Amino acid sequence: MVWLLSLLMGLQPVGTDFYLPSLPSLVADLGASMTQGQLTLTAMLMGFGTSQLLWGPASDRFGRRITLRLGLILFALAALCSALAPTAEVLLVLRVLQGVGMGGVVVNARAIVRDHYSADEGPRAMSKVMTGLGVFACVSGPIGGVIAQWLGWRAVLLAVSAIVCVALWQVWVRFEETLLEPNPRAIDLGDMAKSWAQVLTHSQFWAFTLQSIATFFGLFLFLATSSFIVTEVMHETQWFYGLIMFSMSASYIGGTFLCRALMAGSGLQSTVKWGGVLSASGGVAIAVGHIWGDTHLAWLLLPVYLYAAGHGIHQSVGQSGSVAPFPRMAGTAAALSGFLQMAFAFLGGAWIGPRMSDPSAVLAWGMLGSGIALFAITWGLIPRITPERPTLVVATRTARR
Predict the structure, then answer these.
(1) Are 81 and 133 in contact (CB under 8 A)?
(2) Is pTM, for the whole model, over 0.85?
(3) What pLDDT score was predicted for residue 369?
């Protein structure tokens, strides 16, 4: 199950990191502005975030299998059509549809973790899944960079479609339904409103969702600005940028291993505090480098490695912790948490769009803000609402093994 969930969650970096090295050439080929190029990423996140509000209740009503298949089919078709887009405007619409399909995949993957594992086992299981996601992120950048440099950006999107088709095939032949008790009223508007209210008034949901929001916002800023910083400001090749993405993803994988080790030996509170220290250290370091005026590659890489390691901890704990209290509404809780993450990322995209003339400043100040927020959340908020235990014990049920 962990392998399949890693494949499904790994489609996130396939849809983003795989595509990033081709952004500068895409902008040049379509005659678009740098802001429009950045919007192709933001547009996908908008579709990804908003669609989860529908995918979540639908998953709780009809089951994980059918909604997962539908999401994968839409994702694959939209990526295929994107490779044929004649203009930047058409590409933006198709990227939104890719995001909608990806929303169905990720909501179901996170809900399956809650279906299949107990609340105690969830954070450690999610950290294994996130390790798998990190492997996909490691290879997505370099492979995407090579394809972009030798075959062009359209070939990159064709490759994305092909990878999603492989995931669809695996789900079709291997995945068995994990939702044992579908909720027949999950898509009833009245019941949906009650479910949303129940989730949105739960303190643990907010603590861990805010953790996920803050860490993803810093990552989003890196994804939106780094290709321009490396290729336009530092004048490196697309292939070399792919290697940078590989090394950053390797640091993220290291963070997921660190998360499991800390959870086993020190407990939840100590684990998230270490994540907060790593994130804040990365944010401070990149801001100091920017103020100092250092344009050396180390100014970018070392702080990002620290932040990525912290991200490996925050994602593993945050994504499992936000849904753990809701065994019968895992899809809805995952959807709301995912929507809030993407909503903040979309607002961030709107903020950085007019400022992309100086992508280095956007990344430095944005990552500093994310690091400070994560330090406050992990040292102040989470310890107040979680017990001093190695695991999250918030709900009990018989989990299907």
Answers:
(1) no
(2) no
(3) 94
